[in-house]
Design brief:
The structure holds 2 protein chains of 2 kinds. Chain A is built from 7 helices and 11 strands. By secondary structure, chain A is an alpha+beta fold. Chain B contains 16 helices and 21 strands. In chain B, the strands form 4 sheets. Chain B has a 7-stranded mixed sheet with strand order 9-8-11-10-12-13-14, with helices on both faces. In chain B, strands 15, 16, 17, 18, 19, 20 and 21 form a 7-stranded mixed sheet that branches. The chains are: A alpha+beta, B alpha/beta.
């Protein structure tokens, strides 16, 4: 059984960020380098491997809103900050099985979003849009019914109002449109192959240089 | 049921029947069984009509058959107007005489609640068992120009032409078929699909796509039982001819409670719009746009690109049209030095020297024809929007008034600009260059058909409508170019 099937079998309706990214990774979608830790010793080992600056996130399968619950600390630059952040997150976590995700801090000022929703009429539909804190405010998104081909994926990118953000503006590299298209195509495939998946969010999907990297992800499963 | 490969022959009796049985025919003029018979007679259906009513006798001079069993064997279409509760038995009787195509006008089915829904489910089971093809129930009927078939509840006299239309609403059917006449939209087939118990919107799309008489397909939809089936049928049809769809009830799409951005935002965007774009469907956002687009596809050649020039008699219209073009994905061609110097020879010295080409109120009747001839030749120009036709109507008013005031004397006050000869020239040039010249009336408040020496074209009412129609032509042309390239 894969991660999705296991979670669905237990009646869970959500995958943790860590689990979500493992599914994305298995489908060839680039994700942040990261590891799960349970104590300060493991934290030290993980930091050594990933290198500062890092992001620490409380790993939970119960909430989609980590920021609001004080479960995210970003831009951690030294051991002192790391330990403090680790302890705060562990306190704020209300899971029985507590762990913290140690993640590379992806540099990139352009935050996109990609995802999947299941439409009553058309089945799985792929979403692309402007991500980060603007996602909810600007609602600058486009959709296509899965399965999609590269042509559709490129159209989706062109369709958002902020599409110029993908070009080489203000000295930034142009976005790797092929890589973005691959992500959108894969999301559609995940939706078609996994009946249990109701919704997926990759938000933010950060452009690091021109390369997209999934910095956060959420899978919502169908209620049993 | 979804369309199968042999859907087409099954559709024939519904749109081109040999003989029609009207089950539930009535002598009471306030019953649909009377009105539909009257429409069939007045519409001029050439085959035999067999009204069925247990009372027998005659209605409107036509012999009435007391039972279905007595109907001659050349009836291949049944129109049913009996109360919902009796429809299932009627269907079985029809099956008994080999009548397998029915238009079920009767209402009182799933649209009315759970009892009606139970009746409809039972009807569906009967139909499948007897291998029947049904339109409806709760349909307003079918129109087909080929055989003068007016199997309709309201009396309509649609203009005959190349549009075929499937509507999930009867009202929007009446509206389009009525408005089409003055807007240059002629119909060859229309079906109100009713509750779509058997044949659905996508089945008709598939049929119209294969039908050589149908040049443009229109659909009004509110909901789909099989979104993917619709997508496939619409995609296949779009590869053959333009498919224009107006989706009603869009604001309800956002009803779903979602936990993710993807889910929540799907409502505000409408996945329907995505599905339409994916399948090459031209989405219209109103009944007006639906007719405007249809008439554009019926009257103009497709632009090969999105590079447009605007010809205008005044600045404001040009500005508004340019805005509308850019907003809908069209580009304004910039004029080369060479073109500008050529236009200098045919326009007054104070013209705009750019695109939009503003004639700046010149009264010279040669400006329009000369300019149009220069512009349509240019390779970089894919389409032309010509603003301010029919100005002669305004001048005629002036001349008539002056004459009635005895002030005109023998002054010959006439206006040739934008008149019949200009329109005719545009038609000739469109034929010769296969590029659209969309003309906008300076006096009409709605899109309207005009006929010049027996040739029909259409004049739009505003720069925005013209730009929107041009953009629709371009979107479809772009879809065809893209799919052929793939």
């Amino acid at each position: 059984m894969n991660i999705i099937e296991q979670a669905a079998a237990k009646g869970r309706t959500m995958l943790s960020e860590y689990e979500s990214k493992r599914v994305l990774e298995a489908h060839g979608i680039p994700v942040t380098r990261e590891t799960l830790v349970n104590n300060l010793d493991e934290l030290a080992t993980a930091v050594k491997e990933i290198g500062y600056p890092i992001v620490l996130k409380g790993c939970t399968q119960h909430t989609a809103h980590k920021t609001e619950k004080g479960l995210i600390k970003i831009d951690i630059r030294n051991e002192l900050e790391a330990k403090e952040a680790f302890n705060t997150i562990m306190t704020n976590l209300d899971d029985d099985d507590k762990s913290v995700l140690v993640q590379e801090m992806v540099k990139g000022s352009r935050e996109l979003m990609a995802g999947l929703t299941r439409d009553a009429q058309f089945g799985p539909c792929v979403m692309f849009g402007l991500g980060g804190i603007f996602a909810e405010i600007l609602k600058d998104v486009s959709f296509r019914v899965a399965p999609i081909e590269k042509e559709n994926a490129l159209e989706m990118m062109k369709e958002i109002k902020a599409h110029k953000i993908l070009s080489n503006i203000r000295g930034m590299e142009a976005a790797d449109l092929d890589a973005l298209a691959e992500i959108l195509i894969s999301l559609g495939r995940i939706g078609l192959e996994n009946e249990e998946v109701d919704e997926i969010d990759i938000n933010p999907l950060i452009l690091s240089g021109g390369k997209p990297v999934a910095a956060d992800a959420l899978f919502v499963l169908k209620p049993a | 049921m979804t369309a199968s490969s042999n859907a087409k022959p099954e559709m024939v009796p519904l749109f081109d029947p040999k003989g029609i049985a009207l089950i539930g025919a009535s002598a009471n003029p306030n019953k649909w069984g009377f009105r539909i018979l009257a429409n069939l007679i007045v519409g001029g259906f050439e085959g035999p009509l067999y009204p069925v009513n247990p009372n027998g006798g005659e209605i409107l001079g036509i012999r009435v058959y007391p039972s279905i069993k007595k109907i001659p064997p050349d009836a291949d279409l049944g129109i049913v107007t009996v109360p919902a509760i009796k429809v299932c038995d009627i269907l079985k009787e029809c099956a008994g005489i080999g009548l397998r195509s029915l238009i079920i006008i009767s209402s009182g089915f799933s649209e009315t609640g759970s009892r009606g829904e139970a009746l409809e489910n039972e009807l569906g089971r009967c139909a499948r068992r007897e291998n029947m093809r049904l339109i409806g129930p709760n349909t307003m009927g079918v129109y087909s120009s080929k055989c003068n078939l007016h199997a309709l509840m309201p009396p309509l006299q649609p203009k005959i032409g190349g549009a075929s239309y499937v509507s999930q609403s009867g009202n929007l059917g009446v509206q389009m078929l009525s408005w089409g006449r003055e807007r240059g939209v002629g119909f060859c087939k229309f079906v109100s699909s009713g509750n779509e118990l058997d044949l659905r919107c996508e089945d008709f799309l598939e049929y119209f796509a294969e039908d050589p008489e149908s040049k443009v397909i229109i659909a009004y939809i509110e909901g789909l039982d099989d979104g993917i089936g619709f997508l496939q049928a619409a995609g296949t049809a779009s590869g053959k001819k333009p498919v224009i769809v107006f989706k009603g009830g869009k604001t309800e799409d956002g009803g779903r409670a979602a936990k993710s951005h993807s889910g929540a935002l799907a409502g505000s965007y409408s996945v329907y719009t995505a599905a339409f774009r994916q399948s090459g469907v031209i989405e219209a956002e109103s009944t007006d746009a639906m007719l405007d687009f249809t008439t554009a596809f019926l009257h103009f050649p497709l632009p090969r690109g999105n590079r447009i020039v605007i010809m205008t008699r005044g600045g404001g219209w040009g500005v508004v049209c340019a805005d509308a073009c850019r907003k809908s994905g069209l580009r304004l061609v910039s004029l080369s030095e060479r073109i500008i110097s050529r236009l200098n020879q045919v326009l007054p010295s104070y013209w705009s020297h750019g695109n939009p080409i503003d004639f700046a109120a010149t009264l010279n009747p040669e400006a329009f024809p000369n300019c149009l001839e220069e512009l349509i030749k240019i390779n970089d120009v894919d389409g032309i929007i010509a603003l301010g036709m029919e100005y002669g109507d305004r001048t005629k008013y002036l001349a008539d008034k002056l004459k009635s005031m005895n002030r005109l004397g023998d002054i010959d006050l006439r206006e040739e600009r934008g008149g019949a000869s200009d329109i005719e020239l545009a038609l000739d040039l469109m034929d010769a260059y296969q590029k659209p010249v969309i003309m906008v009336s300076g006096v009409s408040s709605h899109t309207k058909a005009v006929s010049i020496n027996g040739r029909e074209t259409v004049l739009y009412s505003s720069p925005e409508n013209a730009a929107r129609a041009m953009a629709a032509l371009w979107r479809y042309s772009h879809f065809l170019l893209k799919t052929k390239a793939m």
